[in-house]
Amino acid sequence: MTAPVRTLLLWCPDWPVIAAEIVDGVPATGPVAVLHANRVVACSERARAEGVRRGLRKREAQGRCPQLTVVEYDPGRDARAFEPVVAAVEDLVAGVEVVRPGACALAARGPSRYLGGEEAAAERIIEHVAQTCAVESQVGIADGVFAAGLAARAGRIVPPGGTPAFLAGLPVEALGRPALADLLRRLGVRTLGDFAALPAGDVLARFGFDGALAHRLAAGRDHRPLAVRQPPADLTVTAEYDEPVDRVDAAAFAARALAEQLHDRLAGHGLACTRLGIEAVTAHGQELHRVWRHDGLLTAAAIADRVRWQLDGWLTGSSGRGGVGRSRPTAGIIRLRLIPDGVIAQAGLQPGLWGETGEERERAHRALSRVQGILGPEAVLTAVLGGGRSPADEVRLVPWGDERLPARPGEPPRPGEPARPGEPPWPGRLPPPAPAVVLPTPLAATVHDADGEPVVVSARLRLSAAPVRLTVGAAQPMEITGWAGPWPVDERWWAPAEARRRARFQVGLADGSALLLAVEAGQWLVEAIYD
């Protein structure tokens, strides 16, 4: 049987709490608890001092510590925050396995020989992580990942061959299997040594495969190989210039050479770029940055075009919309850097069935991207439909090339289509069709009945009379030939400063036009115009 690998494991205590501080700014020095399914899965040292423990329900934890700050468990946040720690460890050693966010392991043989022994390696790694990431950590070394993890919690280096003796005195709860630990205690087995002394065949027959695996761990026979991760390849390309680049033609030449270098590097890894970061540094130390997005795959020519357009926009300081100009750099560019901010596997781009990814679309995309390079990304906007109760809420303007994500979930279905599964119903949303023009500023109006009296809407959405005439501003009154409504909207009633309550009507006029009206606080408004 293969002997367990001598393993060094770095452990960051209370990592979900530390990750919440790094990402969300929650101070870990205070009483903090991370909850999942209404139970505490991690807590800070201050919270433990107040009696908070893992497994407590939220109400009980808050009862023990009224000042407790509650944070929802987010494994993605924990993983993102732990990535710089793993990168710091990889600065010193290779072959790191991420056991879970907050813990990573590696074979101890290499760093111990290179750094002057196991104790020196542990101290060096802890110090480097603290200086690089400002994160406290502990290191344990033992035979196997399981024993090294338990040694890290105690900050111990278990001598070679001493792992079974180290594990023998630990409680069965150290296995991390609550159901198994509870059953073993009821059977009188309280330590890992007691569990390891049981015959392996009897353990397999009584507790199954998972129990047999836990039995091997308790005996110190953890011989699984480390699943080391491959550090991400550095795909960034950089060019430095002895003579500052301050002319557009020189910038175009530099852009072409650097774009081909980036494209070749990506192709060597079987990747293609969908989002490109362009960074430039001038001779006076000014830093410029812009991110370009593309809904397809950026070829070498497409990368070169975008870099050239961006450098042209920076060097000429072209005017933005409304004549507002950008300040031109005070010196030429001495360093240019291209960063593939978004990459995918290069498998080719499938053409659209109806030609939406053909030559005409690409030509339009190049033209609009050229405008953005001169005037900025906000110069070209496209509409994205989403959820909402009013036409103004359902449309979000995004820069050309950005991800077309709605501001609110639930894109409204097309006329005649049923609602899509999983989308919120948005009570009070107007029925189709949608108006053709949504006024940026609603127009004040008045609505009268047949007797010339103003039409009012009560709190119970009852009209004082049928609307007959509509007057918009100082224009002549127009006859209302048909109307529908009201559609009530009562939003953010829980926040008095932001609460809004109104009712909307669709009206048809004698000249054939149709309007969307709203009445709020007794005032009639024209919000939109139907085609």
Concise structural overview:
With 531 residues, the chain is of the alpha+beta class. It has helices at residues 15-24, 45-49, 58-64, 75-90, 109-115, 118-133, 145-154, 163-168, 178-186, 192-196, 200-218, 248-268, 300-316, 359-375, 391-394; strands spanning 6-11, 32-36, 39-43, 69-72, 97-100, 103-107, 138-143, 237-245, 271-282, 287-298, 333-345, 381-385, 395-399, 437-448, 469-472, 478-491, 500-509, 514-520, 523-530.
Question: Can you tell me about this structure?
Answer:
The chain is α+β, with helices and mostly antiparallel strands. It is 32% helix and 27% strand. It contains 15 helices and 19 strands. The strands form five sheets. The protein has a six-stranded antiparallel barrel. Strands 5-6-1-7 form a four-stranded antiparallel beta sheet, with helices on both faces. A hairpin with an 8-residue loop joins strand 16 and strand 17. Helix 1 packs across helix 4, helix 5 crosses helix 6 and helix 13 runs parallel beside helix 14. The longest helix has 21 residues. About 1% of the residues have low confidence. Keywords: DNA damage. Belongs to the DNA polymerase type-Y family. This is DNA polymerase Y family protein. Pfam families: IMS. InterPro entries: DNA/RNA_pol_sf, Rev_trsase/Diguanyl_cyclase, SulA_CellDiv_inhibitor, UmuC.
Please outline the helices and strands:
Blueprint: E1 6-11, H1 15-24, E2 32-36, E3 39-43, H2 45-49, H3 58-64, E4 69-72, H4 75-90, E5 97-100, E6 103-107, H5 109-115, H6 118-133, E7 138-143, H7 145-154, H8 163-168, H9 178-186, H10 192-196, H11 200-218, E8 237-245, H12 248-268, E9 271-282, E10 287-298, H13 300-316, E11 333-345, H14 359-375, E12 381-385, H15 391-394, E13 395-399, E14 437-448, E15 469-472, E16 478-491, E17 500-509, E18 514-520, E19 523-530
Helix pairs in contact: 1-4, 4-6, 5-6, 12-13, 13-14
